[in-house]
């Protein structure tokens, strides 16, 4: 799709904080690899490009909701809950209920962490 000269994309015009989650999610994908997801756009990028687990129904739902959020058709909270459910299934997190409302365990930088080793 060609870009019209002098026009900025809607994403560039949006306020940077319009979709940030109050508690970013840290997904541990390997022994030395952590991904910090702070908003639905980052969740969609992670699922599209760096998701190493099986792409099951929860993954597809989370990815669809993240895409719908960027079209302003769903809420950021719905994307966060769906992403946490998909990450729990894919990376073996035992409990999701506490993650939906806020942080459970703090990492070194004070962010909640999803750890597949639990």
TrEMBL record:
Pfam families with a match to the protein in the record: DUF982 (PF06169)
InterPro entries found in the cross-reference section: DUF982 (IPR010385)
Name the record gives this protein: DUF982 domain-containing protein
